[in-house]
């Protein structure tokens, strides 16, 4: 692989790693010690919501702002830890009164509104199971997930209910309660309740159920990038990882103003857009609106955000607007409060890391994890130098390896030599590990071979122990005996000044088996013509060599992505080849 020659090395103007407590933590690390940073409950109990909210009533943070909510029109609502504790207790009581049994599922179908956070934390506090859905899903994906999850309660709005749930509700008889956040008792659709009024009737304190660490807490559906989404089961013990990784991988401290741009409809928006910052006692920003660069810069400036966690798709969009030479709208904003930037969800091209330094004054820290892992596993974390284009190194307590799997003998051998491609695997046993795919035991079992969890991603590890993402196993391209990772090709194309986004896929070809084809979306101001196509092909050949460089390039207005911002290469490939599109329930942008 050519990665180590392609990536740029760390620059002297980048922040020096902060070694204060990492080395000691890593040396004496144990999950027991990590857990001791939490309060816990009598008899060895543990509850995510108690750790995130209620324990702060006794540690001096009760009157601190826990959630600063910004509505679409920028109305601001502050919820302090004390208020959040009361609201979530009320919701916990409400579930009890409605007769929802411990372990039963409460779903939400909401935008990023305060009620979503109250319902989520209230459900966890009550020892019931929470499952957040993207509000932009249509009726079918909602029905499919609520059926898999056997939903008992749904929290949503009048309009979502009427359009997306009411038409099929009779097919889910187990759904006994629907709570609407924007209705009052006088105009409720049949069979629904008003969230506000039901909550107002439950003004009791307490409500905490003393859950055990192994009790099911969250049901999270994967992004569906490679196929039908799976419902990953997470337990209360996961909070140990949320706290630890919030500290190490995101450099989060109680004094911080923190903003994670992810929606709780995918796992980042729950693990790091709700649980980690609250457990640490920080103030977190929730923005109801969708990505709008000017609004985002305004929020970063006005809210004096210190730590920002976002995704490559957003970073690439911002990259269209500014460069080191032409700072564009970035010149109008004061982002000096920012201290730490992080990215997850897709490979972050080295260009993006460097762009952060040049335009914002800080590099992005890429990190890797999955719905299944529940929390960050591998990161360019604050106590080590960043390698642009690398996902970083495993966090304390995480054993990761690049492995070879022999399907015949079902044995797994870690590859010890550096820079050899293989499957990215983890040694099970960390607390936020998923405990199953709900109702799909066989699919779950297949993830484990010979004492390893196989992530489905391919990677390499370099001599310094940094991991380099090559691609999802399903997206790898086999051309003339070479195994080509799409990320490598895409990152080389991203270096070209005209490219905003790129996706590389394999197209069958008789001699080579497959050839690489790239689909490219351009930055504003560039014309998709033959001259530019040739310039891109030439650039890619120079960077990658003829064996790896794309043979064909087509232009697209944009690339199909999941709601969590991941490019769906399998869909591009299916379309190229005229094959069925497969499950596209999580598809978001799709201008062809
Ligand atoms: P599905 O499993 O349904 O196909 P998904 O894998 O996209 O969906 P998620 O759990 O949301 O669902 O995403 C995890 C995946 O995202 C990882 O397995 C990896 O492929 C990709 N990913 C996450 N972070 C990174 C990163 N920093 N670099 C490269 N890839 C990443
Ligand atoms: Mg996956």
TrEMBL record:
Known EC number: 6.2.1.1
GO cellular component, one term: cytosol
Domain AMP-dependent synthetase/ligase: 62-438
Domain AMP-binding enzyme C-terminal intervals: 488-566
PROSITE patterns in alphabetical order: AMP_BINDING
Statement: the UniProt record of this protein carries the keyword Nucleus: no
Gene3D superfamilies in UniProt: 3.30.300.30, N-terminal domain of ligase-like
Keyword Nucleotide-binding assigned: yes
Keyword entries, A-Z: Acetylation, ATP-binding, Ligase, Nucleotide-binding
Entry-linked InterPro entries: AMP-bd_C (IPR025110), AMP-bd_C_sf (IPR045851), AMP-binding_CS (IPR020845), AMP-dep_synth/lig_dom (IPR000873), ANL_N_sf (IPR042099)
Gene Ontology molecular function, alphabetical: acetate-CoA ligase activity; ATP binding
Protein's recorded name: acetate--CoA ligase
Chain's gene name: acsA
């Amino acid at each position: 692989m050519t990665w180590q020659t392609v990536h740029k090395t760390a620059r002297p103007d980048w922040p020096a790693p902060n070694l204060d407590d990492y080395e000691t933590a890593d040396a004496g690390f144990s999950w027991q010690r990590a857990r001791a940073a939490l309060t816990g409950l009598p008899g060895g109990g543990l509850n995510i919501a108690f750790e995130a909210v209620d324990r702060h009533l006794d540690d001096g943070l009760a009157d601190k702002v826990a959630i600063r909510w910004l509505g679409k029109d920028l109305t601001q609502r502050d919820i302090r830890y004390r208020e959040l504790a009361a609201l979530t207790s009320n919701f916990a009581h409400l579930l009890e009164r409605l007769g929802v049994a411990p372990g039963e599922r409460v779903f939400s179908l909401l935008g990023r509104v305060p009620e979503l956070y109250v319902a989520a934390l209230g459900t966890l506090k009550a020892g019931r199971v929470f499952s957040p859905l993207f509000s932009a899903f249509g009726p079918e994906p909602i029905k499919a997930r609520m059926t898999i999850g056997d939903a008992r309660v749904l929290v949503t709005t009048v309009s979502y209910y009427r359009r997306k749930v009411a038409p099929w509700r009779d097919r889910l008889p187990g759904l006994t309660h629907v709570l609407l956040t924007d209705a009052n008792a006088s105009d409720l659709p049949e069979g629904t309740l008003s969230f506000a009024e039901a909550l107002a009737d439950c003004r009791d304190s307490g409500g905490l159920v003393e859950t055990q660490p192994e009790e099911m807490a969250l049901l999270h559906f994967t992004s569906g990038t490679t196929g039908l989404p799976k419902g990953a089961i997470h337990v209360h013990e996961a909070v140990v990882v949320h706290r630890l990784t919030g500290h190490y991988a995101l450099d989060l401290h109680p004094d911080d103003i923190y903003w994670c741009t992810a929606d709780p409809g995918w796992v980042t928006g729950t693990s790091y857009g709700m649980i980690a910052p609250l457990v640490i006692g920080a103030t977190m920003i929730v923005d109801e609106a969708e990505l709008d660069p000017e609004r985002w810069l305004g929020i970063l400036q006005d809210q004096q955000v210190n730590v920002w966690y976002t995704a490559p798709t957003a970073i690439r969009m911002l990259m269209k607007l500014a460069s080191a030479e032409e700072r564009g709208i970035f010149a109008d904003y004061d982002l000096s409060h920012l201290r730490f930037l992080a990215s997850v969800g897709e490979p972050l091209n080295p260009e993006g890391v460097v762009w952060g330094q040049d335009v914002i004054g800080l590099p992005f820290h890429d990190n890797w994890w999955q719905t299944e892992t529940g929390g960050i596993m591998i990161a360019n974390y604050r106590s080590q130098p960043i390698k642009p284009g690398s996902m970083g190194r495993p966090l304390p307590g995480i054993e990761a390896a690049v492995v070879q799997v022999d399907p015949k003998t079902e044995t797994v051998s870690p590859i010890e030599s550096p820079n050899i491609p293989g499957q990215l695997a983890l040694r099970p046993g960390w607390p936020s590990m998923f405990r199953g795919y709900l109702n799909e035991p066989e699919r779950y079992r297949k993830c484990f071979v010979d004492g390893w969890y196989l992530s489905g991603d391919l990677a390499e590890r370099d001599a310094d122990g940094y991991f380099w993402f090559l691609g999802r196993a399903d997206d790898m391209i086999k051309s003339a005996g070479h195994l080509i990772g799409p990320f490598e090709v895409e990152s080389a194309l991203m270096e070209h000044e005209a490219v905003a986004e790129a996706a590389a896929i394999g197209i069958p070809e008789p001699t080579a088996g497959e050839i690489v084809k790239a689909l490219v979306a351009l930055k504003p101001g560039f014309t998709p013509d033959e001259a530019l196509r040739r310039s891109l092909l030439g650039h890619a050949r120079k960077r990658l060599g003829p064996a790896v460089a794309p043979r064909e390039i087509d232009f697209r207005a944009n690339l199909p992505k999941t709601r969590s911002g991941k490019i769906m290469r399998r869909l591009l490939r299916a379309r190229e080849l005229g094959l069925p599109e497969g499950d596209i329930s999580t598809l978001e942008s799709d201008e062809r």
